[in-house]
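3.2 Worked example (two chains)
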Amino acid sequence: MAGARRPGRNFLFVPGPTNVPDRILRAMHVPMEDHRSPDFPSLTIPLFEEMKKVFQTKEGQVVIFPSSGTGAWESALTNTRSPGDKLLAPRFGQFSHLWIELARRHGLEVVVQEEEWGTGADPDRIEEALRADKAHEIKGILVVHNETATGVTSDVAAVRRAIDAAGHPALLYVDGVSSIGSIDFRFDEWGVDLAITGSQKGMMLPAGLGILCASPKALAQMEAAKCTRAYFNLADHINANAGGYFPYTPALPLLYGLRESLAMMFEEGLENVFARHRYLASGTRAAVDAWGLSLCAKEPKWQSDTVSAIMVPSGFNGADVIERAYRRYNLALGAGLSEVAGKLFRIGHLGDLNELMLLGAISGAEMSMRDVGIQVEPGSGVAAAQEYFRNAYGAADQRLAAE
């Protein structure tokens, strides 16, 4: 059947980009308009305010770039740092590694704390390093909240407590690309100084928007920061955004899509969005247990609610499972990256999805594993996930009835 048309839809279960809901697709289907017209701010100004609710901040400044999350990474660093500044960064996956390398390309010195892949940021080690930094040479801590490559979520609140316990003035930079909008993220409460996300994951949009939130403390460092910046200059955006405009041409359809995305999230309720992701992730973990396999995350405290990185048995290659799923079942699963390449495959369970959609991915992964020779009991993962969903939903119904 090589080269033949594959009927039906592609099942997209990588951890981003995620499925774009029909509502958002329709909202983006707009004619072009003058982005300097008097009416344009009626679209844009509410977006900045509504995004603050997603970051859970009152004081933070939201900026929306036509870029990927990587552009927001770059903006966060270049607007607040100068070449030669020292940063501290735990490295425990491909995306923490890439952020470190981006910082180094801008002439920043990064002290790397190597952590085992499958774990996350270690607050105790961060506190120890900051206590030892008597001269306060470390200017910032780079933490990936949700490491997509390994399916690991770090405790950002614990990192803030470590910084405070050390009495250190370093800024807290957080990559929330695969967490914000899906996993509880509390910018103000956790004392985050710069957080970034992208449009193509929990925000349920196509790729193309890099979204940044900066604290007043971070913004106060812009004037002294000497890293070169132009396209990602925060001052240009903040000045233009105040009137509802942008310093250059914005990604107009994506802004309309973002308005619809925010409406959908608030209709569901942020707390319910977070609970739904935890519920779907737990069903996936039940399937993994039933298969007799393990997650890359070393302990339950590290397990991500947006992506499960599933280790394949010794002697098998996760890439074979992924290729079989794609070629035979029209199912897109995430690949292992860098140190875990070939050792695992990933099921993304974030964005706009429900139980039946996820059960399709679990079924496809199960069939693909069996096809390449991995001995899992047919139907075991699907049955375990179904049973989890049934029991969890029943328990929720009983609580509602009791109330």
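3.2.1 Second chain
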Amino acid sequence: MLAMVRLRRGVVGESRRVCHLIPVPRGPVPEHLTALCGESIFPGEAEVLDGLRGMPCHPCLLRSAPAGPGVLANAG
């Protein structure tokens, strides 16, 4: 399962407050979470979003897209 998070105001500048996709860990909560793009998110740095909003992290989106021929055949 994936969660969508965005870094809080003041942690980074507004242009870097993109929405990351993070695999929800099973078991104990780790020291930090790692977004699909590789960015480390530490406790208190991000807010969990309850739906689609804000600018997406493009590398996270690319890594979450299903693979296979013809997946995007009808796009655009």
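3.3 Remarks
The two ends are 28 Å apart (CA to CA).
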